[in-house]
Amino acid sequence: MSHTHCAVQGCKNTIFNKPIGISFHACPTQSDLRNKWLQILKNKCTVLDWSRSRICSRHFENKYFDSQRKLKENAIPTLFPVSSQVYKQNSDGVTPRTKVDRLLNKLTQAELMSDIKSSLSKLKEPTNLENYMNDDYKCKPDTPTEAQLWILVKKQDHLNTRLMELVVQNKQYVEVLQKKLENVKASQKEMQQNVENYNYISKCLQEKLATLEEQIEILTAVESR
């Protein structure tokens, strides 16, 4: 891709027809930031040449520009055209493609779980659900769609329960590690205090030894007379 054109697929900006305020930016030279760009742009550019390709400023959020409209060093492209509109990428680097995706992306995990439980409480679970499952926990060929959905819900709910148990276990493990770390820090502090006490005692003994040596010298001088 020429350095005169924006490398993002579908973007028509070039240095010859760029609107007012649009600027072009080279790929970063820092390896860590460069890898982030590569991860984001790998499906957004037909061809990407790190030495020549340029990304226009339309693909960067305003927070990545300073007051002089210069691109900051930590800037990454997050805005891309999707179905003639531009959507912001989420924290995972994935651009929501539908309205449902974008709406769900705004909800927290707690809100999603609460909404799912509320929705399930309003639905009636089939009484013979276990009759539609094989021994390998898969649906039988003649399983109705409603029963298949309920079996999926059951599996998801069981998986969520396992995940929550793991979260609790990990939390307890972290608490244990934190307590051990606090004990280690307390031990180190106590050891440091002991070292300071020993240094003080050693200093006092050295002073007493010096005093005794002076007294011995004086007694020796007196006896020699």
From TrEMBL:
Give the source's domain of life in one word.
Eukaryota
Cross-referenced Gene3D superfamilies: THAP domain
Q: Which SMART domains does the protein's record reference?
A: DM3 (SM00692), THAP (SM00980)
Residue ranges that the Swiss-Prot or TrEMBL entry lists as coiled coil? 174-222
Q: Which residues cross the membrane?
A: none
Write out the entry's keywords from A to Z: Coiled coil, DNA-binding, Metal-binding, Zinc, Zinc-finger
Question: Is Metal-binding one of the keywords?
Answer: yes
Q: Which residues form the THAP-type domain?
A: 1-80
The family database entries (PANTHER family) matched by this protein are listed as: THAP DOMAIN-CONTAINING (PTHR46600), THAP DOMAIN-CONTAINING PROTEIN 10 (PTHR46600:SF11)
Q: What is this protein called?
A: THAP-type domain-containing protein
Q: Which organism is it from?
A: Iphiclides podalirius (scarce swallowtail)
Q: What is the lineage of its organism?
A: Eukaryota, Metazoa, Ecdysozoa, Arthropoda, Hexapoda
